[in-house]
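User: For documentation purposes, I need each entry recorded in a consistent format: the amino acid sequence on its own, followed directly by the corresponding structure tokens. There are two entries in this batch. Please keep commentary to a minimum and don't merge the entries.

Assistant: Recorded as requested. Entry 1:
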Amino acid sequence: MDSETLLARITDYASRPDPYPLYAELRDAGPAVWQADGSCLVGTYHEIAALLHDPRMSALPRVSGEVTHKPPFLRLDDPEHHRLRTLAMRPFGPPHSPGRVESMRGEIDRITAELMESFGEGRQIDVVDDLAYPLPVSVICRLLGVPREDESLFRGWSDALVESADVRPGQDTPDTAKAGDQARIEMGGYLLNLAAQRRGDPRDDMLSAFANEPDPSLRLTDEELAETAVLLFIAGHETTVNLIANGVLTLLRRPEHVDQLLREPELLPQAVEELLRYEPPVHMRERVPLTDIDVAGTTIPEGTSVVLALASGNRDPKRFAEPDRFDPTRPDNQHFGFGNGIHLCFGAPLARLEAQSALRALLPHLRTARLVEDPPPYRQNAMLRGPRHLRVQG
């Protein structure tokens, strides 16, 4: 088929279980490949890395219609991106220090242990519903200061937001966008109200830190606080759900590596890095050039939608030896699992801890477990790719 249909074929739900042959086709077609909808698709490692570091590439997507709210800093450019990201990072602790995330290690392991109580020999469990989703949600809610009884409110909001953030040519609908906007308003309103309750009555959580910032120059406005808190929630769990679920699926398909990690548990952090390369939770990001740019001899005009296929770059044979082989001992593994450049995922340390905790607890069970359905049903989202359910017979 024509290379101009690659993005449409990659984002087609039928390709969700295995988009990697299409990524190989993309790389063969060239570093920058024009699509029928006028966008440009980039799938080679070195070109993606250069564009992610290029200040001429804007994170602000093309929009139609009226913009009703300020985007989260994930979709802003410097200097505003840097200002808001720096303020959002302050409650995590000083740079280059263990900080709040590292202090959560024991709590993450305790939450994992509680969730693992439902796992047992001979029982069927859903890795997504029983562990991969509730673990990061519980962790981020406790970091933010959300009461445990309110954690259930966030699933519907989160699903609507993720659905509206997809990269699917011709498939976005006004209803999807409207539902995403409504979820953002409701979640932001809830978190802003919670922060207001903590103003003058702080607790050991991030909303309290935001609400009680003593320096006016470092204080978020209400709109910024709401958008930042929503972003922290989404970034703090959505990628981790996919990382854990994709990781379990990968290991169940390769029992030799389950045995290897049980024999050599010190390899687990390295194995998580390889999972981030091999089956990344985020497959694509959109950027828009602020001026005409050149990508390997192709001129991309200002304002063009450029889709960076991060998952394709992770399998580029010009960067990784035997890229289609899962290797928990792979050296020099500078993947795009958490993006790159100024928008590198600031929740990456938390996601790594959660994935390591979940896989460490699951590994003894994976030795005898089997997949109930392979491939499993996937989520609709092509950008945030992962199983919607992952049923396993213990």
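Entry 2:
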Amino acid sequence: MRIARVLAGLCCVLLTAGTARAQEWPDRPIQIVQGFAAGGNADTIARVIAQPLSVALGKPVVVEGRTGAGGNIASEYVARARPDGYTLVLLTGGHAVSAAVYRSLRFDPVADFAFISTVSVFPFVVATSLGSPITDMPSLIARARANPGGTTFSSVGVGSTQHLTGELLAQATGIQLTHVPYRGGTQPLTDLMSGRIDLMVDSITVTGGAIRAGTIRALGVTSAAPWPGLEVAPIAGTTPGFEVLSWVGLAAPAGTPAPIVQRLQAELARILQMPEIQRTLAGLGSEARASTPMEMRDFVAGQVRQWRDVVATANIERQ
């Protein structure tokens, strides 16, 4: 009985100390770690939210790049960081894809994080060249069925979200497509326009300018409904139920005190309602979209399950 009282008292002391630390937070700069190249989509979005978060919290919020392994280096770094609210990570859709593609990771993509809120979501576009005989989704499906595997599509690499989106499209329409991986950059767009590849699967950030300029032909967008600012029909119009939305979200190490997570979520949700922030994100081809911590956790877990199914069905070799 005495031991039980001692343990109960110790728990109360620890809880009180944790609450006190959360109430004092923040008392020094906060860092948002992101895992991709400077100037890229993740880095840009991290900086878009860092400045207003700094104003809201009264302390500097700095963005640090820890690049490599499709964002996994940044994720592992934050998963192992002290859960004190001073080290956050900007996760992308690739976080869930990595869980599907890699045989093992040095962190658990769900359990090792205290999810705060999604920041934005965005679809992909399936496009072809102007000279292609493929003019819409029905003609793509007909051509691919007539010549299984004879239609190629590009992505920014094996196991990327774009790659798995192409595989999911093939599964949903009952066709076979041949994947041609690139390392990103403008080469896929150049090869598409020259006819070296048949299809391109990429974000609006990459394809939007060429679509609006009329130099490539968009066959469909992967959002369930038409995407604002893009006059492209959803693939779901001909393939009911098809939808792929990639995402960006903010998280902390598992064990971060709940009051800190709640404060961050509330401030971020308020920031994402600012018209100037919404316009900036829309210019990047994405839509501001906040969530609760539990909604983000459930969403990420669902994404992991979805992409694992795609990888298994497509017989993609796990890395």
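Summary note for entry 2:
Residues 13-17 have pLDDT under 50 and may be disordered.
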